[in-house]
Design a protein that fits this description.
heterodimer, A: globular, B: alpha/beta, Rossmann fold, 14 helices, globular
Amino acid sequence: MLFNSLAFFVFLALTLLLFAAAPAGARWIVLLLASAVFYGAQQPIHLAYLGGVTLAVLACVRMLARTERLAARRALLAVGLAAVLGSLFAFKFHDFLAGEIERLWAGDAGWTLPRLGLAAPAGYSFYAFSAASLLIDAYVRRVPVGVPAGQIALYLAYFPKILAGPIERATHFLPQMAQNLRLQPESVVLGLQLMLWGLFKKVVIADNLAPIVDKSFGIVAFAAPIELLTSVYFFAFQIYCDFSGYTDIAIGVSLLFGVSLMENFRRPYLSRSTAEFWGERWHISLGRWFRDYLYVPLGGSRHGAVRLYLNLMLVFLVSGLWHAGLGYGVGWTFLVWGALNGAYQWAGVATRPLWQRLGERLPGVAASLPWTLLRVLLTFHLIALTWVFFRARSLGDAWLVLTRIGVQWAELPGLIVHYPFSADHALGAVLILVLLAVEIVDEKRSIFSRLAAAPAALRWAVWYGVLAALLLLGRWQAREFIYMQF
Amino acid sequence: MRSLLRPALWFTLIGLVLYGALFAASEALVLRHGRSNPFFKIARTPEPAVDWIVLGASHAMPLDFGDFNAGLQRASGQRIVQLAGPGTGPLYNRLALEQFLHEHRARHLLYVVDAFAFQSRTWNEDRIGDVKLLRRTPCDAELTGRLARYVRDEGVDVRALLDYATGFSKINNRERFERDVWEGEAQFDRVAPRSSSAIAKRIAYLYPSPPEPEALAVNMARFASLLALARQHGMRTHVIQMPLPPAFRKQLPDATAFDAALARVIEAEGASHADFSATIDDPRLYFDTDHLNRAGLGTFVERSLMPILMQGAR
């Protein structure tokens, strides 16, 4: 059930009615049942998979709460993580890796490895991240004691976030269940506004950019360098609007029920460095997950420069692996994507003293608008370069995109002037400009709070404008959200 | 929450008024740029009675490309209304016939059979809900009621009715400023290059995979009810199969079984039948894998169709 489908809106309306009608103390049960319906609606068997893993996780969490002996606690954590990560491996990576091993080493011997043939349930990676963090938090006793098992199950399966995040923490989610959930006017209004804005980003911007990107990346050799360059830029905004649009809708839907989910995007293309992009602005919930459950346990920056560099690269390689195996074709492109981002972090750490010294010696320049703009543009282009590996079907395709653009780089300005761009290109460019304008305004003060303070006529005109854009320009043919595949 | 009710009500009311304005503007664009949609043609047929109506899928459509139908009417001296639609099976055709008969009459029905259109719900139930056709279908209360019945009785998705009733596809139409012309019309004068892979691709597109064995029986029954409806309204029905290139014909799946089922229905309903599928073998007379180009259609009309039309004139 996609957030941009009619079925979802009907489902949401019914869930809201049931939620409002239920006694305050039992509303989380409505949400749990709704989550089961939401997840099982497309593939009931996937609900069974989820139920099985959830029972295993719940059992481990319960026993972790009761067990004091360290060895037993470690064993319970290991069992729980094995259930979660093992099922993730089975669903996402087993068949892919079996194929790669055969391709690399079977040669003429002709031996084959068994395949599981399991289709990964939608959003299973996000579920696995939530479950793993729950187990670790239970192990270190951060999860509140005495929480009903149903509420923990709801934390894992909560329908607004189960398919593509945000990767919520139990420590943030469960305390909200302890309070009586209710419909609050401010939350409902903000939730509806977030849903509208998220739909605009997904259905109007991302889905209008997608056909242009798909065409160029479909058969890379047939696309002109100028088309490839346009598609690289467009894809940067497509994936942002697709993913952050989903997140906005998820957070908005959740607010209707009075449950707040964590922020996941903060105007990432206004980042002044790749460290800021990954650390503070893009897929924040995943970044924090990696920081808290991988980077810090590995030692972070506490054990010298070599370990710091190793840990940084490891985090990004694991992030790349998480994306690999599904998405835009099966391949190693995601690992290169992760490695490239890891390399950016290395460069950032290595040059940090230089930038600090520059800031101290030329404070006026470092704080100036042109300098900031330059940094923003440079960061955007570095990130856009990595998206080529994310989007391309193979390493060969990614390399072809980059070399074809690179070879004609000098002639591109002239080609841009003479290239017969279509109305769809123009629409895409205008939508990107609208998005950037909104984000620049939003950077200084939230656009939602600005609107809340604005006269009603202006506020309503803005939302009627967004609704009109959804009706007139939206592509509503239920195109899947990109990150649901992960 | 009560504090929200009043502004929410106003917001919704103003929103509905604005939606109504968009609906009206979209409807005006549908009427301004309409051309090949069967329901548009019905709405734009001023005469209460005509001589012929033509139903079928894309193989019948070249008869209305450019000024071809005007020429056909001049040559035959008869009023012909073309109501074929691309990729439309018997269910869609019956809906069009019912709508036509609501305010019009015809003496003859020419039904151009496309075998693929009988063998999948894609070309029937789903096609009625296809936004590509809905967005060009003018608003009509009678058709809304008819669609509601098709949702109830024929398994058409309720979203098709909602879409049509709210005009959503028309408001959301990306080609709202373009004329409603089927893509084949632009190729009417060309000669298709020979390509076995293009034929294989086309067959794979037209015929469902995996096959839907129950669909043929269901759609033959719908076809029978269409013929019966025409008979009840005093129409004489002539069922024909258009010429196809030999390379395409050979690849049609289960052609013998289909022809036998078709013959049974036609005989039972008392219609006439002429199979012209093997009458034009020259591939230069087709503009793509299986549609006649202008030269091919001219040959077909002169040799095969005109005698049927003139038979109707008597």
